[in-house]
Amino acid sequence: MNYLLLSCAVLFASQVSGQSAETTRKLQQLTVERQILTDELEQYRKTLDLLRSDDTPPEQSANPAIRSLAIEAAALNKQLIAIAEREVTLLQQQIIAAKNSSKKEVAALAAAEAEPAKAIESKPLRRHNIDYTREQEAENVERLHGLLESYYMELQESARVLPTAEEIAERELAQQDADSLERIPFRVDKVRLSGSEGSTALAEITQRLMDPRIPESRRDIAPICLIKTRLFDTLIISENRSLRPVGKNHYIARVRRQPGYTTLTILSKQWALRLPQHVSARDFLITLYRRVEGKLELHIFAVDDLLAVENAHIPAWLPDELEIMTKRG
C-alpha cells in the first residue's frame, strides 16, 4: 500500500512539474515580449521629450509628428496591458497549482506514514519546499499589478484626447463625402445659417477633423451654452445645454427653439438671432469651433432645412443622440 501511495504522489508531482514547466516557458516568452515593448515605449517617451517645447500634453500638441508618436505610444500601452494581464493569469494559475500539489503530496505522505511497517524499508518521500517559489510568484503578481495600474493611467489620459478607431473611421467616411460635395461659400462670422450653408459648415468641420495640422482636444470637456428666448419682451425660455465634443475643439448640440429673440452665451461670448414669430418651434443644430488661439466660431441651422438640401453633408461623426438621419429614397 505504501508503494501505491508513494507512486501516486510521485506521478502527481511529475504531472504538476510538467505543467509548471510549460507555464514557466510561456511566462518567459511573455516577459521577453513585454521587455521589448517596454524598451520601445521608453524610446517613444525620450523622443517625445526631445520634440516637446512646452508642457502641452503630446496628444494635444500642434505638432503632427508629436501627436503621431502619442498615438503609437498609446497603442504600445494597449499591447503591454494585454501581455501583463496574461502574465498575471498564468502566475495565479501556477500559485494555485502549487498549493494543490503541496496539499496532495502532504496527504499522500501522511497516509504512507500511517501504514504498518513493511519488511522492505524505503526512504520516506522527500517533501519539496515550494514556499520560496510561491513567494516569488506572489511578488511578481504584485509587481505586474503595479505595472498594469501605470499602463491603465497612461491609456486613460490618452483616451481623454485621442479619437477611437471607430471615430477615425467615421471621420474618414465623412471626409470622402465632403470631398465630393460642392462647396457653398459662407461667412464664418454668420450665426444663423440656411440648410445649404449648414451642410457646408459640417463639411468644414469634417475637413478640420481630418487635418493633421490641427491638434486634438480633450474629450471630457463640454462647454455649457446658456440659451434665453424672449417673446414680446417676455422671457419664455432660459436653459443650460452641454455641447458634445466631437474632436479638435469642435462641439455640437441639438436644441429645440421657440420663435422670438434668442441669445446664446458660451464661455462669456454672446450671439443673438431672431426666429420669426409666425413659425412653429423647430429643432436646430448648434456647432461651435474653438480655435487654438481661443477664437470662437458658432453656427446654428435648422435640422429640417439641412435635410431638405439635396446631397446634404450628413457626416458619420455626428453623435447618435442627435438623431440626424439621411433622407430615404
Can you give a write-up of this model?
The protein is an alpha+beta fold and about 325 residues long. It folds into two domains: about 1-160, no CATH class; about 170-320, no CATH class. It is about 50% helix and about 20% strand. The chain contains six helices and eight strands, in the order αααααββββββββα. Strands 2-1-5-6 form a four-stranded antiparallel beta sheet, with no helix packed on it. The longest helix is centred in the first third of the chain and has 51 residues, at about 65-115. The protein is elongated. The model is unreliable at about 1-15 and about 120-130 (pLDDT under 50).
Short description:
The chain has 329 residues and is α+β, with helices and mostly antiparallel strands. Helices cover 50% and strands 18% of the residues. It has helices at 2-51, 64-114, 131-159, 165-179, 195-209, 303-308; strands spanning 224-231, 234-242, 244-247, 250-257, 260-266, 269-275, 282-290, 296-302.
